[in-house]
Design a protein that fits this description.
Layout (H helix, E strand, L loop, with lengths): L8 H13 L10 E5 L5 E6 L30 H7 L9 E6 L3 H10 L3 E6 L6 H13 L2 E4 L15
Parallel strand pairs: 3-4, 4-5
Antiparallel strand pairs: 1-2, 1-3
Helix pairs in contact: 3-4
Amino acid sequence: MMRKDYISWDAYFMGVAKLSALRSKDPSTQVGACIINHDRRIVGIGYNGLPRGCEDDQFPWGSEGTFTETKYPYVVHAEANAILNATTNLKDASIYVTLFPCNECTKLIIQSGIKEIVYESNKYQDSKEHQAAIKMLKASGVQYRKIEVGELKYDQTNQAV
C-alpha cells in the first residue's frame, strides 16, 4: 500500500523555491523562484543576487544610504533570474515564488508567457508597486494565488485542503 502523507505539488515546488532562496546573500530578504511547465517539470530556478561577474563582497547589501550605496541598483530579483535561467519556452508556465513579485518582475513574468504566479509571502501588499503589479496581472489575465506551505494538509487524493 502506498503512503498517503506525501507532499503536494504546490508544497514541492514552493520547497524548491525556498531552497533556492537560501543561496541569496541578502541579509534581510532572501527570495527564491521555481518555474514549472504544464507537465510539472522544473524549467527555471533563481534567487535574488548580483549579476554574473559581480563579486558579492564588492557590492553593498544594505538598504539605507544613497541609492548607489544600497543593494537596490545591483540585485537581480529571483523571478528575473529564474526567467533568464529557463531552459525552454515559458508559455503557459507557472512560477512559484517565496515573495509576491514586484511590478518590474511582474512585467517580465507577463512578457515571458507565464500564466500563473503561486506565492507564499506578500509583505509589500500595501505598496504602490504591488498595486501596479495587480493592475497588470488583471489586465493580462495572469492568475495568482497564495499558499501557506507550512499549513497544507492532504486528503486521500493528495489534494491540498
